[in-house]
Amino acid sequence: MDVDKEPIDSLHVEATTTDLTMAKKLDHEVLEHNMTLRQALTNYRKAMLYSLFFCFSAILWGYDMQVSGGLLAAPEFRAVFGYTQPDGTTILPARWQAAFNMIATVGGMGGSLLCGPISPYFGRKVTLAIACVISSGSIFLQFFAFSRGVLLAGKLVNGISLGMFLVTACSYCSEACPVVLRGITIAMVNLFVVIGQLLGNCLIRAFGGRTDTFAYRIPFAFQWLFPAILICGVWFCPESPYWYVQRGKHAEAKKSLERFQTGGSVDSWLVEIQETVRMEEESASSAGYLDCFRGTDLRRTLIVIAVWTINSFSGVNFVLSYSTYFFQIAGLPTSRSFDMGVGVTAVGVVGNICSWWVINTIGRRSLFPGMIVLTIIVLVIGILDVVPNYNSSIAWGQSALIIIWNFFYDLTLGPLGYVICGEMSSTRLRSYGVSIGFFTQNFWTLIMTIIVPYMINPDEGDLRGKTGFIFGGFSVIACIWTYFCLPETKGRTFEELDHMFEQKISARKFAKHDRRADGA
User: Fold this and answer.
1) So where does this one cross the membrane (predicted)?
2) How far is Cα 397 from Cα 355, in angstroms, rounded to an integer?
């Protein structure tokens, strides 16, 4: 009898430990589901601040986008990188101009994919630091460039760092905060993108008219401020607890969680992370890009790809890139048109701030009514363009609709793209899933940068506002997909999401699904 006693005791101890683990995990799930926004902001304000710091890196993405387009209109920029015609006017070669507009997007595609394997290996902090070093070097190339080739090389390298910034920020925010704050913090990525656009517009407005090379060199140099702040501050941020647990460093994970939380025990939070990681590692032994397209992860990856495809096919490149064009048609002087362009981005900031309420109250499927509104607006822009006796008053109407469209875009689709991208992938494949998402975004941005000018320009398609019909048609398809295929992830822990995808729950039933009904 004594021989059998030790195994029985060991089994009893193991069962007791398992029961305690499950109890702690359930305690944390209950805490997460019952936590109010006010409680979260009080107890996890440090997690929110650390996440905001990582989101700050996204400002460079928006800034680069806006500065690139604005510099093409700066006389001194054209004088240095263009050629002078017999009549004294300076022209930028069309092919080089197209390359200048697209090269950062190509770099962003590479940077997104590069971040997939780097982030799980080095962690979120080191990955952000690497991106800062790459960014600083690329800014050096742009600041001291006096030839087209060197400037394009600087833009390409900068694009790599921009792709890495977005992937790292989304991944970190999704893993650093409790469920009630997760959507808001990931949405901050889009807010900082729009803030970057606003800053870019302001810098071009302030220095673009100078008669020396600092007309474009100052806007380039201003970018140095951001990686300098990031690389100095990132070492004071805690690493992602999920990354520590995946590396088997549970003590470090606990210390990280203690820095995210203000007071109280973090044991139950740590247990939930450990269980999530354990379950995912049991279901698959490898982690890579191919794994994103296997099993239940395939559905999750396709959702991420679809959301970023919808983002581009909603008409964002058409509406925002050509807002100044409509303002000029309406009769505004060029300088005033650029002022209105600043106003468009300012409206975007307001929309982003309002989106926090939408994301936390209505949820991720608020993308469906948001898409309906966006679809109606682009279709109306198209309809106004075929009204007989098109005049400046109608152009003013289209301009107003562009501003309204931008508000609703940044209220729903804009930030929700980042939120869904950050939440949808499994913990094991998060860096790879987010990387695929931003690769998709950059890919479609590149395609739209090429084809939209052919749609709009008078010497090509000459569609002008009628381009709204094309994007309106795509948006109708997007509305249908959103209704039937986009699951509601609001208020769900990553373990719950893993379970629901494993059970193949219908997208429309995610919000009301009860795990206890499955015996889980």
Assistant:
1) 47-63, 96-114, 126-146, 152-172, 179-200, 220-237, 302-320, 340-359, 366-384, 396-420, 432-456, 468-486
2) 25
